């Protein structure tokens, strides 16, 4: 949630990136992120898309016309590889499948989350969100607007991927690289025959991806540690061009990975200095630095900020720098020796 020199969707155009790869900007209506970059990889058996965009009429029209501008008919799409299950990436995958008969592929961990989401009723979702927010220390007035926000779940994928799997793109070598953190099943896709890496939301040029814990008070996962380890995995690939899902391409994925790692280490250091007295997750999030004052954040953004605060608190706890107080509701954290 850092500041960005975000380029508006109105300035974006479909682009031939060379080497049989094109990019198509697909709008995210009503969202300040603006758009998702969907990539098309040519193959003799038909193009394969990396991500698909938000499930909205305007987005669908932009995807169809954008693909046509780079010589791709959406009806010829062979498959859609989804970097992760979030709606601005996976939302239109089902529509592409309906139009072309394409397969949809996703990492198995995110595929399980999609299955869970599709089986969860609106009432169950509301109850889950409300209890999570209450245990984090959110005020009662903030619960309804956050708990009721729920985009439609994406289509269930046809194929489940694991780390190291080769994607079905005839004539190309596209390998799945499991990079958890932003989601449990986030994938980067290494186009090994061209030293290119489709990074999804794992590496972005000017912002850092959201790393959160849901429910906020889980102590059996450490998504920030997973994310930092995934950055190291990307750096170990050597010099690769980064093709992210937002903003713009970068010549050196490893260099940007190092910058993002340094950002989070600095954030952890500053957060540890805040937890000098027992505080709830919500109180801690309100004291952290975001891209605008806490009072100006919408309820939805406060919920995301709390998730990110929780992930950093969990990382500090796992490193032995803070502790959660036992049998306290809402959950509270404090420095280890306080």
Strand order of the largest sheet: 1-2-3-4-5-6-7
Our measurement of the CA-to-CA distance between the termini, rounded to an integer number of angstroms, reads 29 Å
CATH topology: Metallo-beta-lactamase, Chain A
Total strands: 14
* Largest sheet data: 7 strands, mixed
Proportion of residues in helical segments: 25-40%
β-strand percent reads: 15-25%
Figure out the total of helices: 10
What's the mean pLDDT score?
92
User: Secondary-structure element order, as H and E?
Assistant: EEEEHEHHEHHHEEEEHEHEHHEE
What is the number of domains? 1
Q: What is the SS-derived class?
A: alpha/beta
What would you call the shape?
A: globular
Low-confidence stretches: none
CATH superfamily: Ribonuclease Z/Hydroxyacylglutathione hydrolase-like
Walkthrough of the structure:
With 338 residues, the chain is an alpha/beta fold. The chain has one domain: 4-Layer Sandwich (Metallo-beta-lactamase, Chain A), CATH 3.60.15.10. The chain is built from 10 helices and 14 strands. The strands form 3 sheets. The protein has a 7-stranded mixed β-sheet. A 4-stranded mixed β-sheet has the order 8-9-10-11, with no helix packed on it. Strands 12-14-13 form a 3-stranded antiparallel β-sheet. Strand 4, helix 1 and strand 5 form a beta-alpha-beta unit. It starts with 14 loop residues before the first strand and ends with a strand.
């Amino acid at each position: 949630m850092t500041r960005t020199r975000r380029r508006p969707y109105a300035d974006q155009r479909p682009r031939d990136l060379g080497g049989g790869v094109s990019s198509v900007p697909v709008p995210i209506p009503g969202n300040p992120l603006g758009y998702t970059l969907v990539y098309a990889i040519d193959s003799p058996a038909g193009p394969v898309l990396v991500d698909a965009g938000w499930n909205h009429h305007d987005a669908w029209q932009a995807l169809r016309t954008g693909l046509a501008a780079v010589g791709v008919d959406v009806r010829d799409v062979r498959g859609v590889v989804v970097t992760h299950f979030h709606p601005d990436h996976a939302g239109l995958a089902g529509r592409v499948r309906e139009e072309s008969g394409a397969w949809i592929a996703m990492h198995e961990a995110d595929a399980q989350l999609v299955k869970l989401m599709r089986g969860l009723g609106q009432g169950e979702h509301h109850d889950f969100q409300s209890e999570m927010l209450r245990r984090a220390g959110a005020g009662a007035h903030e619960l309804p607007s956050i708990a009721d926000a729920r985009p439609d779940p994406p289509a269930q994928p046809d194929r489940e991927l694991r780390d190291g799997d080769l994607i079905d793109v005839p004539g190309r070598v596209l390998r799945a690289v499991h990079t958890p953190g932003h989601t449990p099943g986030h994938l980067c896709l290494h186009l090994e025959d061209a030293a290119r890496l489709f990074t999804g939301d794992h590496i972005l040029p000017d912002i850092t991806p959201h790393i959160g814990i849901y429910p906020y008070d889980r102590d059996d996962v450490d998504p920030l540690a997973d994310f930092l380890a995934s950055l190291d995995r990307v750096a170990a690939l050597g010099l690769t061009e980064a093709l992210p899902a937002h903003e713009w391409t970068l010549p050196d994925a490893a260099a940007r990975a190092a910058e993002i790692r340094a950002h989070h280490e600095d954030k952890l250091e500053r957060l540890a200095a805040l937890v000098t007295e027992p505080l709830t997750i919500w109180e801690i999030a309100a004291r952290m630095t975001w891209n605008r004052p806490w009072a100006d954040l919408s309820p939805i953004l406060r919920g995301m900020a709390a998730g990110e605060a929780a992930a950093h608190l969990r990382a500090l706890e796992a490193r032995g720098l803070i502790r959660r107080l036992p049998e306290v509701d809402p959950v509270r954290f404090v420095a280890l020796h306080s």
